[in-house]
Design brief:
With 120 residues, the protein is α+β, with helices and mostly antiparallel strands. The chain has a single domain (7-111), classed as Alpha-Beta Plaits (2-Layer Sandwich), CATH 3.30.70. It is 28% helix and 32% strand. It is built from 3 helices and 5 strands; from the N terminus they run αβββαββα. It has helices at residues 7-21, 62-73, 110-115; strands at residues 28-33, 44-49, 55-59, 77-88, 95-104. The strands form 2 sheets. The protein has a 3-stranded antiparallel sheet with strand order 1-2-3. Strands 4-5 form a two-stranded antiparallel ribbon. Strand 2 (44-49) and strand 3 form a beta hairpin. The radius of gyration is 14 Å and the shape is globular. The chain starts with 6 loop residues before the first helix and ends in a 5-residue tail after the last helix. 21% of the residues are buried. The mean pLDDT is 88.
């Protein structure tokens, strides 16, 4: 889940990919609400840390933020981790893409499960 289109996000994903796959180092992921985001007050930023501090790499899709916000407020998210970083060569989505795995207490709503997609 999430979107990363900027050159800066792509650079961060490249560096994180190298840390994970070549240097076998840990890269952490975090979800950060952005209530002051001028485009979407419900935006949730996806940030990673590969050793240089938190770096913004994308957002949780808008249609899923209404499910994530209550979990963040209730501290019901138990883990956020990077599932996969890949480079895609499909003409409509060239670049690095990252899957994040969000573990929560309780079960995910069926709608969230249906929208959670693996990048291949």
């Amino acid at each position: 889940m999430g979107v990363a289109h900027s050159n800066q996000s792509q650079t961060h994903l490249l560096r994180a990919n190298i840390k994970i796959n070549e240097e076998h180092e840990e890269v952490t992921a975090h979800l950060v609400p952005e209530p002051n985001n001028e485009r979407d007050a419900d935006a949730i930023s996806v940030q990673i840390n590969y050793g240089d501090g938190p770096c913004h790499v994308g957002y949780i899709p808008r249609e899923l933020t209404k499910y994530i916000h209550p979990l963040l407020k209730e501290n019901a998210i138990t883990k956020v981790e990077i599932g996969l970083i890949i480079f895609s060569l499909k003409w409509y989505r060239v670049g690095f893409y990252m899957n994040i795995l969000i573990t929560r207490t309780g079960r995910w709503e069926p709608y969230v499960v249906s929208k959670a997609v693996r990048v291949k």
